[in-house]
Specification:
4-stranded antiparallel sheet; 4 strands; mainly beta
Length: 118
């Protein structure tokens, strides 16, 4: 049954349908790298912030061998639920969870490389 949303407009419920698996959840973490300079007393006197980073992690339950089902370390990942502003999403880690009381699920960690397109 589809959700009926009451209240404030503009809320998002659920994820977009994916190919090859059911995306259970995902997080997008934005950050930067930095280099700091300290004086002779160890106090910060300068900082350079550079190289915006974008890490995506989440969990899915597979039902096919394409889309999410083709996820592998070092492979490009395309998500219907999230598109970065620029670049490519590359998978870094996969972890598969097996249980006797639920469905087998796979967790992933991926990074966006905004200046790489293929």
């Amino acid at each position: 049954m589809a959700a009926t949303i009451h209240g404030t407009s503009g809320l998002t419920f659920g994820n977009t349908a994916e190919t090859g698996g059911y995306l259970q959840n995902f997080d997008v973490r934005n950050g930067i790298e930095k280099t700091e300079v300290r004086n002779e007393q160890g106090e910060f006197i300068g900082v350079a912030q550079y190289n915006r980073t974008e890490e995506i992690s989440g969990e899915f339950v597979l039902y096919g061998s394409t889309g999410l089902g083709a996820a592998a370390p070092a492979a490009a990942l395309t998500l219907a639920s999230y598109t970065p502003a620029a670049g490519i999403i590359l998978v870094e880690e996969l972890s598969t969870k097996h249980t006797n009381t639920g469905f087998k699920s796979t967790s992933f960690k991926a990074f966006v490389y905004p200046l790489i397109t293929s």
